[in-house]
Amino acid sequence: MVHHERMSDLTDVPAPHGVSAFPVRPMTVDDCARVAGIRAGGWRHAYRGLVPQPYLDRMDITADAGRHRARLLSRDGGRGDLVAEGEGGAVVGWAAFGPYRDGEVRTDDAELYALYLDPGHIGRGVGRTLLAEVTRRCAAAGHRDMYLWVLKENARARRFYERAGFGADGAEEPFEVDGVAVPEVRYAKRLAD
Known about the structure:
Layout: E1 24-26, H1 32-46, H2 53-58, H3 61-73, E2 80-85, E3 91-102, E4 105-117, H4 126-140, E5 145-151, H5 155-163, E6 167-177, E7 180-190
Parallel strand pairs: 4-5
Antiparallel strand pairs: 1-2, 2-3, 3-4, 5-7, 6-7
Helix pairs in contact: 1-3
Protein backbone atom coordinates (compact mmCIF):
# COMPACT_ATOMS: atom_id res chain seq x y z
CA MET A 1 0.00 0.00 0.00
CA VAL A 2 1.24 3.38 -0.90
CA HIS A 3 0.57 6.34 1.32
CA HIS A 4 1.34 9.14 -1.14
CA GLU A 5 -1.45 10.98 -2.74
CA ARG A 6 0.93 13.18 -4.48
CA MET A 7 -0.83 12.12 -16.01
CA SER A 8 -1.22 12.76 -19.77
CA ASP A 9 -4.87 11.88 -19.19
CA LEU A 10 -4.96 8.19 -18.42
CA THR A 11 -8.58 8.03 -17.37
CA ASP A 12 -10.02 7.51 -20.86
CA VAL A 13 -7.89 4.55 -21.96
CA PRO A 14 -10.33 1.78 -22.96
CA ALA A 15 -10.27 -1.42 -20.92
CA PRO A 16 -9.06 -4.63 -22.53
CA HIS A 17 -11.47 -7.38 -23.51
CA GLY A 18 -12.27 -9.90 -20.78
CA VAL A 19 -14.09 -9.69 -17.52
CA SER A 20 -12.42 -9.44 -14.12
CA ALA A 21 -13.89 -10.84 -10.94
CA PHE A 22 -13.50 -7.26 -9.66
CA PRO A 23 -14.56 -4.82 -12.39
CA VAL A 24 -12.53 -1.60 -12.44
CA ARG A 25 -13.99 1.75 -13.43
CA PRO A 26 -13.18 5.45 -13.02
CA MET A 27 -14.03 6.86 -9.60
CA THR A 28 -17.03 9.20 -9.42
CA VAL A 29 -18.06 11.86 -6.90
CA ASP A 30 -20.59 9.36 -5.53
CA ASP A 31 -17.68 7.05 -4.59
CA CYS A 32 -15.85 9.61 -2.44
CA ALA A 33 -17.24 8.61 0.96
CA ARG A 34 -16.59 4.92 0.32
CA VAL A 35 -13.08 5.60 -0.99
CA ALA A 36 -12.31 7.72 2.09
CA GLY A 37 -13.48 4.84 4.29
CA ILE A 38 -11.34 2.37 2.34
CA ARG A 39 -8.32 4.66 2.61
CA ALA A 40 -8.72 5.07 6.39
CA GLY A 41 -9.34 1.35 6.85
CA GLY A 42 -6.30 0.58 4.69
CA TRP A 43 -4.08 2.86 6.75
CA ARG A 44 -5.36 1.45 10.04
CA HIS A 45 -4.85 -2.12 8.83
CA ALA A 46 -1.50 -1.81 7.03
CA TYR A 47 0.24 0.85 9.07
CA ARG A 48 -0.56 -0.26 12.63
CA GLY A 49 2.76 -0.25 14.45
CA LEU A 50 4.48 1.57 11.57
CA VAL A 51 3.02 5.07 12.10
CA PRO A 52 1.85 6.68 15.34
CA GLN A 53 -1.45 5.15 16.49
CA PRO A 54 -2.96 8.52 17.50
CA TYR A 55 -2.68 9.61 13.86
CA LEU A 56 -4.51 6.50 12.69
CA ASP A 57 -7.20 7.01 15.34
CA ARG A 58 -7.76 10.63 14.22
CA MET A 59 -8.23 9.91 10.51
CA ASP A 60 -11.34 11.84 9.48
CA ILE A 61 -13.32 10.01 6.79
CA THR A 62 -15.74 12.91 6.24
CA ALA A 63 -12.93 15.43 5.68
CA ASP A 64 -11.08 13.00 3.40
CA ALA A 65 -14.24 12.41 1.34
CA GLY A 66 -14.54 16.19 0.95
CA ARG A 67 -10.97 16.41 -0.36
CA HIS A 68 -11.67 13.64 -2.87
CA ARG A 69 -14.86 15.41 -4.03
CA ALA A 70 -13.10 18.75 -4.45
CA ARG A 71 -10.27 17.15 -6.42
CA LEU A 72 -12.63 15.23 -8.72
CA LEU A 73 -14.75 18.32 -9.33
CA SER A 74 -11.64 20.36 -10.18
CA ARG A 75 -11.17 17.94 -13.10
CA ASP A 76 -7.42 17.53 -12.73
CA GLY A 77 -6.88 15.82 -16.10
CA GLY A 78 -3.43 14.69 -15.07
CA ARG A 79 -4.58 12.29 -12.38
CA GLY A 80 -6.52 9.05 -12.59
CA ASP A 81 -8.63 7.50 -9.86
CA LEU A 82 -10.01 4.00 -10.32
CA VAL A 83 -12.22 1.88 -8.11
CA ALA A 84 -12.71 -1.87 -8.09
CA GLU A 85 -16.14 -3.29 -7.45
CA GLY A 86 -16.98 -6.41 -5.53
CA GLU A 87 -20.22 -8.28 -5.13
CA GLY A 88 -23.28 -6.20 -5.90
CA GLY A 89 -21.18 -3.35 -7.29
CA ALA A 90 -19.85 -2.28 -3.88
CA VAL A 91 -16.53 -0.41 -4.08
CA VAL A 92 -13.84 -2.58 -2.47
CA GLY A 93 -10.62 -0.93 -3.68
CA TRP A 94 -9.19 2.35 -4.95
CA ALA A 95 -6.07 3.38 -6.82
CA ALA A 96 -4.79 6.85 -7.74
CA PHE A 97 -2.06 7.50 -10.29
CA GLY A 98 -0.61 10.16 -12.53
CA PRO A 99 2.67 11.73 -13.58
CA TYR A 100 5.66 11.05 -11.36
CA ARG A 101 6.38 13.95 -9.04
CA ASP A 102 9.98 14.92 -8.56
CA GLY A 103 9.45 17.49 -5.84
CA GLU A 104 6.95 19.92 -7.32
CA VAL A 105 7.81 18.97 -10.93
CA ARG A 106 5.73 16.42 -12.81
CA THR A 107 7.80 14.25 -15.13
CA ASP A 108 7.03 12.10 -18.18
CA ASP A 109 7.09 8.97 -16.03
CA ALA A 110 4.08 7.58 -14.18
CA GLU A 111 3.50 7.15 -10.46
CA LEU A 112 1.10 5.09 -8.42
CA TYR A 113 0.04 7.55 -5.71
CA ALA A 114 -2.19 5.27 -3.70
CA LEU A 115 -3.65 1.77 -3.70
CA TYR A 116 -5.94 0.78 -0.85
CA LEU A 117 -8.38 -2.06 -0.34
CA ASP A 118 -11.19 -2.77 2.02
CA PRO A 119 -9.29 -4.92 4.58
CA GLY A 120 -11.86 -7.71 4.14
CA HIS A 121 -10.83 -8.01 0.48
CA ILE A 122 -7.06 -8.27 0.96
CA GLY A 123 -5.64 -11.39 -0.65
CA ARG A 124 -8.59 -11.90 -3.02
CA GLY A 125 -7.10 -10.36 -6.17
CA VAL A 126 -8.53 -6.85 -5.91
CA GLY A 127 -5.12 -5.23 -5.48
CA ARG A 128 -3.61 -7.21 -8.38
CA THR A 129 -6.56 -6.23 -10.57
CA LEU A 130 -6.26 -2.52 -9.75
CA LEU A 131 -2.48 -2.47 -10.12
CA ALA A 132 -2.65 -4.29 -13.45
CA GLU A 133 -5.19 -1.79 -14.78
CA VAL A 134 -3.18 1.21 -13.57
CA THR A 135 -0.03 -0.24 -15.12
CA ARG A 136 -1.85 -0.97 -18.38
CA ARG A 137 -3.21 2.58 -18.59
CA CYS A 138 0.18 4.12 -17.85
CA ALA A 139 1.88 1.97 -20.51
CA ALA A 140 -0.89 2.72 -23.06
CA ALA A 141 -0.38 6.45 -22.41
CA GLY A 142 3.27 6.06 -23.41
CA HIS A 143 4.97 6.30 -20.03
CA ARG A 144 8.33 4.56 -20.04
CA ASP A 145 8.70 3.99 -16.28
CA MET A 146 6.34 3.78 -13.34
CA TYR A 147 7.23 4.55 -9.73
CA LEU A 148 5.64 4.23 -6.31
CA TRP A 149 6.65 4.87 -2.72
CA VAL A 150 6.03 2.31 0.03
CA LEU A 151 6.79 2.35 3.75
CA LYS A 152 10.12 0.62 4.25
CA GLU A 153 8.79 -1.60 7.04
CA ASN A 154 5.60 -2.57 5.17
CA ALA A 155 6.88 -6.03 4.19
CA ARG A 156 3.52 -7.26 2.89
CA ALA A 157 3.12 -4.35 0.48
CA ARG A 158 6.71 -4.65 -0.66
CA ARG A 159 6.21 -8.35 -1.50
CA PHE A 160 2.99 -7.45 -3.35
CA TYR A 161 4.77 -4.90 -5.56
CA GLU A 162 7.76 -7.17 -6.12
CA ARG A 163 5.45 -9.97 -7.35
CA ALA A 164 4.01 -7.41 -9.81
CA GLY A 165 7.45 -6.71 -11.28
CA PHE A 166 8.41 -3.60 -9.30
CA GLY A 167 11.75 -3.39 -7.54
CA ALA A 168 13.34 -1.05 -5.01
CA ASP A 169 15.62 1.32 -6.93
CA GLY A 170 17.67 2.58 -3.98
CA ALA A 171 15.84 5.88 -3.43
CA GLU A 172 14.68 6.45 0.13
CA GLU A 173 13.05 9.36 1.91
CA PRO A 174 11.28 10.00 5.20
CA PHE A 175 7.55 10.58 5.37
CA GLU A 176 6.55 12.60 8.43
CA VAL A 177 3.51 11.43 10.40
CA ASP A 178 2.68 13.32 13.61
CA GLY A 179 6.28 14.51 13.88
CA VAL A 180 7.71 11.01 13.42
CA ALA A 181 9.88 10.27 10.39
CA VAL A 182 8.70 7.06 8.75
CA PRO A 183 11.13 5.83 6.08
CA GLU A 184 9.85 5.06 2.59
CA VAL A 185 11.52 3.34 -0.32
CA ARG A 186 10.85 3.93 -3.98
CA TYR A 187 9.94 1.09 -6.30
CA ALA A 188 10.16 1.23 -10.09
CA LYS A 189 9.02 -0.79 -13.08
CA ARG A 190 9.97 -0.34 -16.73
CA LEU A 191 6.84 -0.15 -18.86
CA ALA A 192 8.45 0.35 -22.28
CA ASP A 193 11.91 0.46 -23.86
